[in-house]
Amino acid sequence: MTTILAGRPALEQEIARVAEVAGYLWQKGWAERNGGNITVNITEHIDEGIAALPALGGPLAIGKTLPHLKGHWFYCKGTNKRMRDLARAPMQNGSVIRICPDCAHYEIVADEYVLPTSELPSHLALQDYLIGSGSSYKATLHTHPIELVALSHSPRFADEQVLTRTLWSMIPETLAFAPLGLGFVPYTLPGSVALADATLERMRDHDVVLWEKHGTVAVGTDIMDAFDQTDVLNKAACIYMSAQAMGFVPEGMSEAAMREVQEVFKLPKQRVK
């Protein structure tokens, strides 16, 4: 079967990054069965040949009108598709979609008729916000980082200030490479418009948000960037839980030590609370 990636090295490289991250998610145990979702804005890679392709299916409703998505194209992981399979064959386990002119529907264009992720409303709402705010971020990642999800079961960490402060204090790299901390969304039905709206609200202040008892959603310049931020935050959660398993509550970095990291990396000081 001919793929739209043929003869398009930049687009092929973009999808290869998606496949690479999908493999990491499976290896880490963050993507059981068909768990997790990926959406990447690929509009910059769309040429006349792709734009002229007929729809394989649609129009399908997004669930809300997203005006900033007009004219945009996305690669999306397929619903009920496994990350381990996407890592091996991304175009058979995901699809390229284009947003319809009404900004409330989309069409599946390539390579096969694969319905996008059930979390598409959340992902596209984030993409609409990113475009509207002039952000350079193009990727959204939803996955199930084990230790972060475990922390979300504790009422103490439903306070995102406590959650962020705890994670930042575990290791300097967390503060340096996830300087906006971790947002928190109380449990909301997966795939719902309500979850999309709640996530969008917390993403105004964060690049990564923890969905209570469910997983995380992250945005980044590309899918690797979104993965890296999630990975850094989850490493901090691992350190915290390892210390607890050893029988003590980790002391964490002092306020002075964290402010020193802020000075060196030129991070926003008001974030440490």
Level of helix content?
A: 25-40%
Order of helices and strands: HEHEEHEEHEHHHEHEEHH
Number of helices: 10
Give the assembly state of these chains.
Answer: single chain
Structural class: alpha+beta
Shape, per Cα inertia axes: elongated
Average pLDDT metric: 93
The number of strands is 9
Task: Please state how the strands of the largest beta sheet are arranged side by side.
Answer: 2-5-4-3-1-6-9-8-7
The named CATH superfamily of the domain at 1-144: Class II aldolase/adducin N-terminal domain
Characterize the largest beta sheet: strand count, sense, and whether it forms a barrel.
Answer: 9 strands, mixed
Give a quick set of tags describing it.
L-fuculose-1-phosphate Aldolase
Q: Would you summarize the structure shown here?
A:
The chain has 273 residues and is α+β, with helices and mostly antiparallel strands. The protein is 40% helix and 16% strand. The protein is built from 10 helices and 9 strands.
Protein architecture, described:
- With 273 residues, the chain is an alpha+beta fold.
- The chain has a domain at 1-144: L-fuculose-1-phosphate Aldolase, CATH 3.40.225.
- The chain has 10 helices and 9 strands.
- It has a 9-stranded mixed sheet with strand order 2-5-4-3-1-6-9-8-7, sandwiched between helices.
- Helix 8 links the parallel strand 7 and strand 8.
- The radius of gyration is 19 Å and the shape is elongated.
- The termini are far apart.
